[in-house]
Amino acid sequence: MKKEIETCYCQSGLVQSECCGPFLQGSKFPGTAEQLMRSRYSAYVTQSISYLKKTLWPEQQSQFDRHEVENWANQAKWLGLEILRVEKGSLFDTSGIVEFKAHYKISGRHEIHHEVSRFQRGSDGKWYYVQNVTGQ
User: By CB atoms within 10 Å of each CB, which of 43, 56, 121, 132 scores lowest?
Assistant: First the structure.
């Protein structure tokens, strides 16, 4: 029986093993802000809470509420991700913006988390999620 190849949760169109899978497993690091955004969405879907903390801006990691994030990730049925806009955040940038909508169901209601996120490349060369800048 042939094994079905699973497409990535982030809806990039790639298979998981060639998209967010290596990031979540720790064998590769996202090379762009958009890749980090997509992999963080996949981390919510797979409840990879440690990855969410590890990819948060280092100075903010001590304030990470694992219990709260874990509850949201576990209670939601993740339905899909839409990337609406990407500004900078490429291999040659040090910061970037990604606007997205994450669709999910919670308590039987369809919800949309719409956010404009700021990402920053650290001194270690890795991308990190810094903050939600929606409405600013």
Answer: 132
- Identify the domain containing residue 92 by its residue range: 16-132
pLDDT digits (tens, 9 = 90+) for 5-34: 689 999 999 999 999 999 999 999 999 999
**pTM for this entry:** 0.93
Query: Cα separations (Å) of 38 from 91, 107, 108?
Result: 16, 24, 25
The tally of domains found in the chain comes to 1
CA separation for the pair 8, 58 (Å, rounded): 27
DSSP code, position 57: -
40 membership: H or E segment, kind and range: helix 33-46
Domain contains 33:
yes
Residue 3 lies inside a defined structural domain of this protein: no
Residue with the two structure tokens 């909508």: 101
Q: How many CB atoms lie within 10 A of CB 67?
A: 9
The answer as to whether 106 is a domain residue is yes
Beta bridge partners of 35: none
